[in-house]
Amino acid sequence: QETILFNGGMLRRRLEVDLAGSSEFLAVEAVLFGRTAMGESVRSGSFHDRWRIRREGRLQFADDVRLEGDIADQLVRPAVLGGNRAMATIIFTGQDMDALLDPLRDVLGEGGGASAWGGKLLARIAAPDSLELRSRLIPALSLLMKGRPLPKVWQL
Question: In the chain, what are the domain boundaries?
Fold first, then answer.
């Protein structure tokens, strides 16, 4: 389920994960800045998303996304969302992440990107709305789930 940020909304959250040994971990978070189908837009607010992933106590991945104040102005910047109003982050940790990189990039297409390093795979997707975001996110997650079914909430 996507997180929806409304105009004037304030959200601050932390994800802390500590993995054991060779365990795998897959996380996805989708965020909508207003609901375009409802004519909503986000002009201002505060959004801070902080992720920390450790393996046996050692930091493996750290990420902070922070938008404050005039969010509308920030969302149009090419290095932020390039005018898009929906985004998703995927992190997958485990063995052979490099083997998934090219197939994942193919599925993501334009508006998405992925990198793999040190047993981690990170992808980001930017889209104009939730429908377009899901249309790229679902095939990406299906690929990463390696044939296992997606949770019902992620099916179109």
Answer: 3-150
